[in-house]
Structures are given as C-alpha cells and as structure tokens.
Design brief:
This protein is mostly helical. The protein has 20 helices and no strands. Helix 5 runs antiparallel to helix 7, helix 5 runs parallel beside helix 9 and helix 12 packs antiparallel against helix 14. It is globular. The two termini are 21 Å apart.
Amino acid sequence: MSSKKSKIASGSIVILIGSFVFRIGGFIYRFIMSRLLDTAGYGILGLTLPFQNLLTITANGGLPPAIAKYVAQYSAVEQDDMVRQIIITALKIVAVTGTIGAILMYILAGIIAIDWWHKPEALLPLQIVAVMAPFSVIVGVFRGVFQGYYKMTNILITRAFEQVFTIVFAIALVIIGWYVAGAVVGTAIGFMASAVVSVYLFRKQIWSRLNRRHDPHSLKPNRDKVFTLREELGIAKMLIKFSVPVVITGLAEMCLYDIGTIFIGVYLASQYAGYYTNASAIARLPLIISTAVATSALPATSEALSLRDGPLLQTYISQSYRYVGFFVVPMCTVTIIFAAPILALLFGDAYTPGAGALQIFVTGMVFFTIYNISSSICQGLGRPFIPMLALIVGTTVELILSVLLIPSIGIEGAATGTTVAAFIIMVITLYGTFKLSKVNIPVADFTRIIMASFLMGVILMLLPKTIEGFLMSIILAPLLYALFIAVVGGLRKDDIGVMYRFAGKFGPAAGILRKLIGSLERFAR
C-alpha cells in the first residue's frame, strides 16, 4: 500500500523535473528570440503560439488523456490485449484528425493573418504551423501511453528532444535570415525529433511486452487476440466518447490562455502581443507544479477507481491538492512582488511594460492550478464533462471581458479577463470534484499555506524592486517560506518523506538538503 500511496509523489517528481527543464528551455527560446527579433517580429511570433496550441489539441482529438486512463485501467487488471488494441486504434484515429487539422490550418492562415488581424507578415508563420500536425499527434499518442504506464521519464525524454531541437534549429534559421518563419520551422523540427524518439521508446519498452507470443519464456498466457472490426469500432467509440469532452476542455483551456493574445492582435499593435506573451509565459510557471501532479493524478485515480479502493482514492486526491498549494502559492507571491525585474532579467527592459499584466495574470494562475488538478481527477474518475462545462462557462466570460477591457485598458484588460475566468472555473470544478469523490476540501492546509506565503511576502516587500532584489529573493524566499510553513504547522510527516526522496536526486547537494530537511522534521505533524 505504501508504494501505491507514493505514486502521486514519485510520478509527480519526475514530471516536475521534466516540466522544469522544459520551461527553462522555453524561456531560453523566448530569451533568444526576443533578442534576435525586433519587438514587432517577436509579437508576430507570440501571435502564432495560440494557433500552434490549437492545432496540437484539435489534431490529437483529446486522445492522450483517454489513452492514459484506459491503458492504466486495463493494464491494472492485466488485459494486455485491450491495451494493445487501444494503442492501435488511437493511432488510426489521429492519422485522420492530424491530416484534417493540417489542411484546415493552412487554409485558414490567410483569413486570420490578413482579413482579421490585418498583419500580412503573420501569413507564412501561420502556414508553417500546419506542418506540425502529423508529428504532434504521434507524440501525443505515445505520451498518453507512457503516462498510463507511469513511465514519466519517457515523457521527460521526449520533451527534452523536442526542446533541444526546437531551440537549436530556430536560432540557426533566424540567424540565416528566415525571421519569424525560422522560429516556427524550428518548433516543427522539434516535434519531428520528439516523434522519432517516442516511437523508439515505445517499441523498445512497451510494444515488445504487449506481443508476448514472441517470448517463449513468458509465464503469462498468449494474449494476441484478433479484434473484429465491430470490436475495434467499439474501442474507438469508447476512446472518442471520453476524448470529446477532453478536447472541448482542451480547446476551452487554450482559449482561457490565449483569447487575450488573439484579441490583442485585433485591437493593439504587434509589440503589445510580445509584452503579453512574455508576461503570460512567466505567469504560467506555477503550471509546472500542477501539470506534474495532474499527470500522475489521472492514472492514479483511475487505478484506485478500478480497484474500488476508496481510502486510496482519498489519499491520492488530498495529496494532489496539498502538493500543488504547497509550492504554487509562494511562487506566485514572489512573482507578484518582483514582476518588473523578472521581465527585465529574462527578456530585457523593453518588455517591462508587461509587468502590470503579469501581476494580474499570475493571480489567475493560482486559481488555474487548482482547476488543473480538479480536471485531471475528474478525468481519472471518468467524469470529463465537469471540467468541460466549467471551461465553457469561464471561456465565455473571458471572451466578453476581453472585448470590453482590451480596447480600454490594454494588456491589463486581457490579464483581468483571464483571472476572473480562472476563478470561476476553479470554483465549479472544485465543487464537482469533491461532490463526485466525497473527499473534503483541505481548508486547514490551504489556510496554513496562505499564512506562510503572506508572512514571507511581507518580508520580501522590504527588498528593492530591482534585478538585484529579485536575485536576493531567490535565496531568501525558500528559507523564509520553510520557516513560516513549519511555524504555522503546515508540514506533515509524509511531506518530510517526499522531501528526502526529492533531495536524493540532487547529487552532491543532497547532503546539505537532507540536513535542512532534518531541521524541519521536528515541526512536522
């Protein structure tokens, strides 16, 4: 049982490390592009990003979470024949959706760039986005399989290849004169590399296991069942039934992120899209934590449901919310205080006009991280309609607010719309999750986390709001937060255990970290 209870923590730590590396790579990409391109060109690049996300979500058809859920569910009861057929059927589905998505994106590029935005320089970058579809769908399917088998390291590897190839080729192509188009082509090459690595890891680690007839030493019976067309259509129906609300949820989630950017392209000059793109990127840093936990929470809750283990399900859910709140709230507190110096440090003084939007946006991301966990739990429990409906409501609200606020108060209006919408979807999904799972909201834990973050923030406010002050806060904030979270009783014994396991991954620094953790252990309850 103890090994089962550690799945959220152990799986989340792997994804957390991978997500952190991925985000760092993303900031390196943005850092370099913001300097290789002028502010207008960087703004055009920022305007293409929502459509990269849109194409990836629609082409995948919401299948990766569905694949993760059913792979985890059927592998838990050792039905390898079903797992194998789920993967095959999913690949057939995305072959169709990926092709359709690429064609539509290419056709719509002219309408968006010229007729809507009146920015013809955005036409070629949007057309190049269409090239990504075939590769992004392949990556999506295999990442879903890896997630279902808890092979989170494989997800990390595929992301690393995607990031490295994207950065290297984008830099090279921009330098040789391809301008914004070169940056977008680099992203397409990153997806190609990730697709190749995904197929290799899948064939090496998973596919050979599922085809046991080739292994004469296997102790398990032959599971090479041949599925009829009717049975395969039934599997396709099962996947699509689950994935439709997921893809609607994904599209609404993307809109929540990017409606502001799209309407900035309509109402404001290109450079404002660049300011907002960088503010949005920094504000989303807390999603590293929530995505890591949510990635583990989906198959874990699905497994607990399959095993009909109520106490284990309650443990998974309560752990998920605590781990997210424990790290996200203090991160956002530091970001709000040092918004301007953070932008100056990462992207240059030219992008500090985005500081006000960043302070508003990061508040919304606190709400969104809670939603992110709730959404994943709902999907794992087989109720993806709850986050879907919440996002539809939230996206509608943001759309209205963006149209009303952006023309009058600029990028701060876009951030306000996102924050209000994020709060609404958080409330709806929290209510739905706890009603569905019968697990109580950890109000006392969140109260302690907020108290510790507030006390930390009060002291950090005394530092100068400069790059030097921010760098000082990087050193002081963890120490202050650890002190205050211990004093207010926010640590548990199992938190200390997770910290020790996490410290072990830092090599030579592990000894120092263990000593610091040991000093906090006596405060744990």
